[in-house]
Amino acid sequence: MNRKPSLFSRLMTGLIFLFLYAPIFVLIIFSFNNSKSRSVWAGFTLDWYDKLFHDQMILDALYTTLAVSVLAAVIATVAGTFAAIGFYNMKKRWRTPLMTVNNIPMVNAEIVTGVSLCLFFVAFFNLWGDFAHWVNGAFGLQLPEQLYLGFGTMLIAHITFNIPYVILSIMPKLRQMDKNLVDAAQDLGCTWMQAFWKVVVPEIKPGIINGLLIAFTMSVDDFVISYFTAGSSTANLAMRIYAMTKKRISPEVNAVSTLLFVTVLVLLVIINVREARQERAAAKQRIT
Amino acid sequence: MKKTVSLTLALTLSAGLLAGCSGGSDPAGSGSSEKRVVNVCSWGEYIDESLIDEFEHETGIEVNYQTVPSNEELYSMLKTGGANYDVVVPSDYMISQLIEEGMLAELDYDNIPNFSLIDDRFKNLSYDPENKYTVPYTWGTLGIIYNSAMVEEPITSWDAMFDPQYADQVLMINNSRDALGIALMDLNYSVNTDSEEELRAAYDLLAQAKEAGVYQAFVMDEVFDKMETGEAAISAYYAGDYLTMLETNPDLKYVVPEEGSNWFVDAMCVLKDAENKDEAEEWINFLCSTDASLKNMDYIWYASPNKEALEQYPEYYEETYGEELDPELYEIMAPPQEVLKNCEAYLVRPAATRTLYNDLWTDLGILA
Amino acid sequence: MKKNKLALFSAPYVLWMAVFVVIPILMIVVYAFSSAGGGFTLENFARIGDYMVVFTRSFKLAFIATAICLLLGYPVSCFLAREGPRFQRVAMMLIMLPMWMNFLLRTYAWMSLLENTGLLNRFFEAIGLFDLINGIFGTNLEYFKMINTQGAVVLGMVYNFLPFMILPIYSVIVKLDHRLIEAARDLGADSATVFRRVTLPLSLPGVLSGITMVFVPAVSTFAISQLLGGGKQLLLGNLIEMQFKGTAYNPQLGSAVALVMMLVVVVCMTVMNRFGEGEEQAVML
Fold first, then answer.
1. How far apart are CA A93 and CA A98, in angstroms?
2. What three-state secondary structure class fits A231?
3. What is the pLDDT, as a whole number, of residue B125?
4. pLDDT, tens digit, for every residue of B190-235?
5. What chain C residue is nearest to A124 in terms of C-alpha separation?
6. Predicted confidence (pLDDT) per residue in C160-197, tens digit
7. B261-270 and B343-344 as β-strands: parallel, antiparallel, unpaired?
């Protein structure tokens, strides 16, 4: 594998990247187009960016997307960390079936997860309606009798499909961890709580961070599950865009995506440059 | 120290989660004290959006405006549950169905004084014979829109929607009632038939055309883009939307085919479970005022049932744009009696026919 | 004792799974066996027979898309693994980056490219390709028909899911122990043999995981076929979506289709993983 990459391999890699990026370039270019057309160039303008910042619907959708993604990613990371540690310390007899259930949302088609949660929420709302009605009647309380799909249900759905990814990224780190570390810490006088915070968590930190990032990415990009669980009053950016593809896509959406894209690009570049620098510094230290 | 911080964090998060659960119902606002809201679900490109701002400004009620592509999809959304619309704007036949299934609330017309401005010919229509549930929003015809630069001779018949000569140039409408209705009209059957034989004949006509590659795509509001750019040559859609497209592409023509067509009324209704009924009625009242109707008509090009607005529109157009409204366009928007005479409204069909519609529609969908 | 205490950490999540994973799936099962009125029925499954053509179409297109992803993704993963570390880092970043731009929007951009009056056809016309072809073959070609075909749907699948094939394969190949390959070479194996006997078997977990990650979303997509297939090439996802939120409301039938699809996919994946003797967890990202 040490051979130099051939011209052919470089060419093929290049073509793949062209394939991946061609539509993105089209999107970005047409966010500056001075007309609503998606395929005829009518001159340069920044109007769509200006309009974007006055379009409440798109801004709300952007806000919903970010709010759901941040909340879901953080909650899923915390819950997933505990769950992973729990699973890891379980007898295999218990762990294997539980891990299988844990894998369901990852292996299952998104549409099945979405539909099943939608059916579940609606059935629960009906039960709740009867229950609340009875309670309100019997005890004179003011429980809401009618619940709707909305931000809350979408958040639950996102957490549900995020946790398995978090567990998946933490598990290998747990396996790499020296099993005796926890025991050693406890022998040295730590309570098991202290052992957990001072030994286990630092050991698996890269896995936790990785899990957080994966969860956040999955949430930001999710359309199908949100589509079935968010109901009518809430919409994330993906749902808004889908609704728009059914009539006309406003170039404002191109603009908002371009902005997101550039933001992520800049972030990734910064992270990469920093990592590269750290690695080089570490390498230097090793040499000296 | 660190431990406490993390614990607090975890606790706040779980609290947030619980709040999230119960907050599921909240965006609608549970009524009285806080912000007043109305949740509206309508079709795409179906309102002058500045009217929403105007209404919000005037009344302080926040409008949560959503759209859905077709009557059938609206029905699915409502039946699946969990949607919290207050006002919906279905078409005639769907209104009857919703009334029949007890999904609409009776309106308090005292809260909708502008209802008196509605032309009498749009009151007490068959879908709501005693006019207890609805306030009409727009009306118009279904017809063929075609690009005169892309077809050889003028189109006059529904036959064009099934003609292999136009392979890959035709956009069929993507809902069962209109699509099967078009086929029924082409076969000179009533659009309100319950005969399985006639409906199957209509299905066969569509299926043959689909298999012959006549249809470039099945579309609802995607039609705007495709007709405006000349991506497709022929489509069946609504008169008002044709006039919108015409602004961008002057080659487009509209025709109510010689076999006759469908004329429809879309009306505003309030759902039975609506949490914001008062706000909903205020919204409805606002939209049927003459000023709002004029403004809306000018933007969406669908005719208003408001008598004054309909009569004043040519004047309004002249004042706004400084040129006369082409009477031909006005007739497309608000067709005269002799055109309507040749058109039939969709009436709600019994459950058995509706199931047949759904089954035929799914069957058509799975064809290659 | 200590161990069991830590095992309790997973208790809340086990409860969560029971409520939000297991019960919802049971709901699908219940719906699939219910009639609209609520009684038990097998009619929904009887009707699935009529939709066999959708099953075959979905599985066919998803299979083709997965095969193309594998044929493109595997060599590219190998090539990338050979590059210098900086190149690899940038390349991985470039592969992940598109995921941050909404997939519907990217797919919609393909629409602008592929339409009859789209950018590609305009480009071909501008360079005189159609005149050339018409001149040679005496045809009357005005555009290439690309949008609203099965080909366009497959293209959309490949485009959207290719990164899911490259990432797991790459992450396995890049960790391969080079000494094994060198050893094989020293023992006289030629390149083809090295690939067949060493590289391929060792990268199999990545390949299997890639196949799963491409095939499952491809077989169940409804947005891609809606956008690039013009609503004509109904796939399983469309069929299900139609019954819940679309133009033919019938959640019982939708549930039955979803249930059967789920079972078929599970069977396919199990067979495949047996065949590959997959590890407990195939490699991800």
1. 9
2. coil
3. 94
4. 999 999 999 999 999 999 999 999 999 999 999 998 999 999 999 9
5. C24
6. 999 999 999 999 998 888 888 889 989 988 888 888 88
7. parallel
pLDDT tens by residue, B160-201: 999 999 999 999 999 999 999 999 999 999 999 999 999 999
Interface test with B, best of C242, C247, C252, C253 (most B CBs within 10 A): C247
**Residues C223 and C104: beta-carbon distance below 8 Å:** yes
Distance in Å, alpha carbon of C83 to nearest chain A alpha carbon: 7
For C50, nearest residue in chain B (alpha carbons): B363
Residues in C touching B175 (Cβ below 8 Å): 247
Q: Are B84 and B58 in contact (CB under 8 A)?
A: no
User: Do residues B243 and B317 lie in contact, with contact meaning Cβ atoms separated by under 8 Å?
Assistant: no
**CA dist., res. C205 & res. C283, Å (int):** 7
The shortest CB-CB distance from C82 to any of A1, A16, A20 is to A1
The interface predicted TM-score of the complex, written ipTM, equals 0.89
Measure the CA–CA gap between B80 and C246, rounded to whole angstroms: 10
Could you tell me which residues are beta bridge partners of residue B135?
A: B268
From chain A, pick out residues whose CB is under 8 angstroms from the CB of C106.
23-24, 27
- Find where tokens 């998606």 sit: A38
Tell me the Cα Rg of chain B. Answer: 23
The minimum CA-CA distance between B10 and chain C, rounded to whole Å, is 13
Question: Which among B105, B131, B104, B96 is positioned nearest to B116, based on CA atoms?
Answer: B131
Chains in touch with C (≥3 Cβ pairs < 8 A): A, B
**Contact status of A148 with chain B (Cβ, < 8 Å):** yes
Distance of CA B119 to the CA centre of its chain: 20
Residues of A in contact with B16 (CB under 8 A): 71, 75
Note whether A234 contacts B: Cβ–Cβ < 8 A: yes
Task: Give the span between the Cα atoms of B48 and B45, in whole angstroms.
Answer: 8
SS3 for B118-144 is: ECHHHCCCCCCCCCCCEEEEEEEEEEE
Using DSSP's 3-state secondary structure scheme, residue B84 falls into: coil
Q: Which of C253, C58, A243, A247 is nearest to B362 (CA)?
A: C253
The pTM score is 0.89
Residue in A with minimal Cα distance to C73 = A16
Paired tokens of C119: 């950018």
Contact flag A39-C118 (C-beta cutoff 8 Å): yes
